[in-house]
Design goal:
The complex is a heterodimer of chains A (about 325) and B (about 260).
Chain A (H helix, E strand, L loop, with lengths): L2 E10 L2 E11 L3 E6 L6 H9 L6 E6 L2 E2 L10 E4 L11 H11 L5 H9 L15 H13 L5 E5 L7 H16 L3 E6 L2 H7 L2 E5 L6 E6 H6 L5 E5 L5 H10 L17 E3 L6 H10 L4 E6 L4 H8 L5 H21 L1
Parallel strand pairs in A: 3-8, 3-9, 6-7, 7-8
Antiparallel strand pairs in A: 1-2, 1-4, 4-5, 9-10, 11-12, 11-13
Chain B lengths: L1 H11 L2 H28 L15 H5 L6 H5 L1 H21 L2 H8 L3 H37 L11 H30 L2 H22 L8 H10 L7 H25 L5
Classes of the chains: A alpha/beta (about 325), B mainly alpha (about 260).
Amino acid sequence: MVVTTIGLTRRFGSLTAVDDLTLDLPTGGVVGLVGPNGSGKSTLIRMLLGLIKPTSGEAEILGRSIATPQAYAASVGALVEGPAFVPSLSARANLISLARLRGLPASRVDEVVSIVGLAGRDREPVKRFSLGMKQRLGIAAALLPDPELLLLDEPTNGLDPAGILEIRHLLQSLARSGRTVVVSSHLLSEIESICTFLVIIRFGVLMLMYAGPMADLLALAPTPVHVRPEFDSDHGRLRQALTDAGWSVVTPDAGTEATVTLTIAAPGEQAAQINRDSLAAGVTLAELTVSRDSLESIFLEMTGNDDGELAGARAASASAAATAAAVRS
Amino acid sequence: MIGVVRSELGRLSRRSVIIGWFGLTAALAMIINVVMFQVIKSSSVPPANGPGVSFPSEARLLSEHGIVAGLGSASSILGVVALSFWAIATSTDYSTGLIRVLASAQPVRWRLILGKWLALGVFTAAATTVALVANLVAAPLAAQSAGYSPSAWGNDLIPLLLGAWINLFGALLIWGTIGLALATLTRSSGVAIGVGVGYVLLGESLITSVASSTRDWLPGTTMSAIASGGTAAVSYGAALSLGVTYLVLTLAAATIVVVRRDITD
């Protein structure tokens, strides 16, 4: 395991940021640490880096206790709460300064600048950099020690879609090179697209909701099959045939007002059999799709839809859509 | 430790620090010489010491020590400049969030603070040299423009310059360490500089006017005495002992805070 925590707790006065967290993160791949802002992700990362001390509990990084962070500092790179540099110095001067701090040669700066795609821009002052370039520079700084473990706190914060895509590819390539990349994010879609292992954190206090491979979590999601007959007039016949074949058609029967697409509560791998049963009844399908719930809906289901931030974001989105509809009408 | 010092030196070697600190130091070292000679020219009795400045007598100014008298006179003002740049260099780590990066790369935090102290010490040595050179350029010109031609200047020049450099460096190092400690405690260069400047320009004068017995050991008097190689009120040895005490106490306070403090933002 690359990270192990046992009963890790951190309190700030009366506020409990991380509560009795017991967790194992596997070596290799991209590990997602997902939870809303204020859920304790950054506090956890700070404790793992030795920036703050836990109130109680223990943790190990690469088999070494977080009580002695100097034992693993040379094997861990981190980006915590956004990139931090001296703005008036060039990117290169900033990186050289950090390389010297770690006792690394200046040639390592060339390597990391190249990895993050900043070659040719590294002699510009950091104050002229866009947010995306600063994020990449922050990752370059984290890569300086050629770490076994990368801890990246919200690495795509503030980036535009193109920048997010770039960082996503970069993190995946870093994981392919044998490193373990731990990424915290409040963006579920971010995590879903790049992570192989996932840790879900409940809102309000860092409390484990799920820790395991991403594929296992997604497999928990229902995978209804949607079918649409070639001719609308076949709708009733198709519904009857599938029901007779033992399938559970969940689309309500609207009587004469036939719904064109029928949804069948069945595992996705049964789609071929549904197709065969439709054909046997003499109905040709124009569409047959297997849908899978997104990570976000699984997350909301697991947390009982009580996640303040996500619920808020959804409400805001629904409200915006309603307003737009009202304006159109 | 060498890595920490080299890292700090790299971050300090920026134009704003070099031009700002060294330029201000050179300008003040020149100005004080002009002011000293104009003051002496108008009255052979030295005026009362101004805020952060002490004036030598005409006899001392025209003696062999006169060529470096400006450094002793301006040491408090030069000290405030040093305090300010030490405070800025320290608080920048907090304001930019760089402290997170530094502390995660070098978790043995006393090395971070000691490395910063050594690197800033190197810059203070350079600033002291700049002040000395500027003083050497300005003093003869200021004397000449005021109608003086001190014949004693130039006797035993090398040991005199060396002594002046060591004394000023010692004073500035202590002022700088106070700035480092203030910025570490407050995480703000503004507060640290405000406290430092306010103390030199106002605080110490007020304290000594209320309790004159404190005059012999307060920081401003102590550092002026070190920079001048001792004064009538405070001997060089006593000033040096007090100065080292100030340095050790402030550096220890800063180190304890950095080592024990959570880095939460």
